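Researcher: Structure prediction, please.
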Amino acid sequence: MHSAHALHAALESPRGTGVLRHLYGERPDVVAHQKKRYAALIDRFTAHFPLDAKLCIFSAPGRTEVGGNHTDHNAGRVLAAAVDMDAVAVVARSDEPRIIVESDGYSRQEVALSGLAVREAEAGTTKALTRGVAARFASLGHAVGGFHACVTSSVLKGSGLSSSASYEVLIATILNTLYNAGRIEETEIARICQYAENSYFGKPCGLMDQTTSAVGGFVTIDFKDFTRPVVRQIPFDLAASGLSLVIVNTGGSHEDLTEDYAAIEREMKDVARALGARVLRELTRERVLADIPMLRKKVGDRAILRALHFFADDARVVQQVTALEEGRVMDFRRLVVESGESSWMLLQNCYSNRFVDQQGVCIGLAASQVLLDGIGAWRVHGGGFAGTIQAFVPTSAHNGYLEAMEALFGPFSCHDLTIRPVGALMLDLL
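Model: Predicted structure follows.
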């Protein structure tokens, strides 16, 4: 831990510049922007907590899902990647048993470590996430202590880039570093954060978002055993492949869609239970196909289609990983498109049937097919129903694609992302 003055100096040092390049890429303008962002956050911290002299900085990335759309909660496989949008905190340890967070756009939150039970009135708030993470640390026997933090986040809310997961993992990484000597492994951090989101925030979710934020890079995760997910980083340089990753905000938000997300997991598991299993991973596509007449009566047609998507996208993840490892970029692009088509046709998460007049995701996908057919790839991004799509765009088409998308969805609707090679951490600036 260091003084605010020392951290300011470190940001301008060769070492500090190297750390920021590692997290955000080599572009000088991007690194310069991050230096200003970090410096402003340090100044905010000293304004809010002027008596704290020993500070440190933490960062936790957002994530992009590349393959395995809604497969994680049924013990399936996913391919995801950490991105250069992140939540950052300037932090000081406190002897008082209380976590105090000043976060951009929110009122100050204070969580007393003596009162970590679920509070229903906090559901859906960042305070619930903070309390939930601390509560899970304590219930698992990990050390918990107070700290002060100023937080800022560049992870777009409601964008499918997992702003909530990046925040949860940020808080968990702070507790792990300050009070547990960093001993808690990334997969357990992810499970702690999932618990906070499920039980305190009130949103059902799998483990993909939190695991990717904690681990970093391109990662494939096999959730066959939820207690011990198999996580493997995939060495792949997206920029060297001639592709750039673009997230397009088509409008709408994920914030009113909790029931739509919950219905996917519920219906998939309805199919599994109807066939004597807990999750779809315990079954085969052939078994489901053979029992469609019975399933139509018992669980309904949409549940069957969503189950068929699970089997297709779960297998497709394995093919995507192999394509990346072997450098078969054309095959990778094809598989991304196939994943998106399955999500649209079988999973049915490109718009909510409660808001049929709001189909920005579908408009974005249709336009992307016209612009990128044969040269790029496109798919619904993340949970779906509203918000963002994902595109892998070749350099030759990049400017034209962004221009066309912004003509449809407005200025600043497109976001160029880089893949961040590391997950949540305390920055080693000095």
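Model: The chain has a mean pLDDT of 93.
Researcher: Thanks, that helps.
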